[in-house]
Amino acid sequence: MAMGKISVSSICLLLPIGPLFLATGALFSPALMAAGYDYGEALSKSLLFFEAQRSGYLPRDQRVQWRVPNSTRATKHEGCVDLVGGYYDAGDNVKFGLPMAFTITMLSWSIIEYGNQIASAGELHHAIDAVKWGTDYLIKAHPQPYVLYGQVGDGNTDHECWQRPEDMTTSRAAYKIDSSHPGSDLAGETAAAMAAASIVFCGHNVSYSAQLLEQANQLFEFADKYRGNYDNSITVAQEYYRSVSGYADELLWAAAWLYKATDNEYYLNYLADNGDALGGTTWTMTAFGWDVKYAGVQTLVAKFLMDGKGIHHALPVLDKYREKAELFMCSCLGKGGAVGNVHKTPGGLIFTQRWNNMQFVTSASFLTSVYSDYLTSAGESLHCADGGGVRVAPSELLSFSKSP
Hints:
This protein is mainly alpha-helical. Helices cover 51% and strands 6% of the residues. The chain is built from 16 helices and seven strands. A hairpin with a 5-residue loop joins strand 6 (382-384) and strand 7. Helix 9 (206-225) runs antiparallel to helix 11 and helix 13 runs parallel beside helix 15. The protein starts with 7 loop residues before the first helix and ends with a helix.
């Protein structure tokens, strides 16, 4: 379940960078901030962690002052592409594009949902800066419409040498996808990150928001036109961030974020027309994370429907997205009926896998928190097919989110 009294600063040391922002996002829920824990301090330390993970030339307002400019050598790849910047993965000095982009998507979603609460904690500018540090790098990594750099550094040589990024001597080779070596999952997730971030910046930096949207549209076209798993093109990523779920979920995820950012009917039609074929309406999920995005897609589409959108777009298909979203929520509550419920430890902690399980704990906390808010705003309740079918109040989802 949710983090309870576990400090985010402790979790930061355990999670890869991609899943980490889910913990940060869950902290932004008003219910959690009112639960009696010092979530403001945890929020601040989470954002400080990302400053410590910055790669490249550091800004003057860098608060983690024991970090100095790093990984600035050999910045030009193939003679012209500057890949300085971005974030290192947690605990090593490799820049992995797929989880990094997912990080930016999730932090942006957190700001979109809970920006007022972040601002009241005095952390909104730090959160926005964290997004921009990521998107500035992702823009650099996308120098042409059908080219995207997806990794800098090699995991094997990096993990054999324990050293600070300031002293790095390991490989800084760069790896890319293109039309001949596709990576729809990587391009799709990066499109989602750009689209989500464009919403964050639309009220702060209009020209930058427009630039991000242009990038997102290009990347979505790239992902959809040239289909394939990115780790078949960037094979050095296979030991670390293999795309086990494939790329179908990222295509839907990108379309959902682009629709949310633009209200362009093309993307809602894409979700409706491809929901069955790409699994958005057929996969019932019990986990959400950097590799598998279906539960996030289903949650977003459910919100579109609650807002009265999609009435003229194959409503029965979009309703199936919402049905799957609610099955995820009910499974977290243990009310999934015949559906395979989320496994839990004897103490009540969600248990998905033996390694790095906390990413799925925090991701479930985030989704159940935002879904509770969506239901509350719409004046609706959650329907769980448990026995004859029961209605569950949004407050029960919130109780799950903030439970120790």
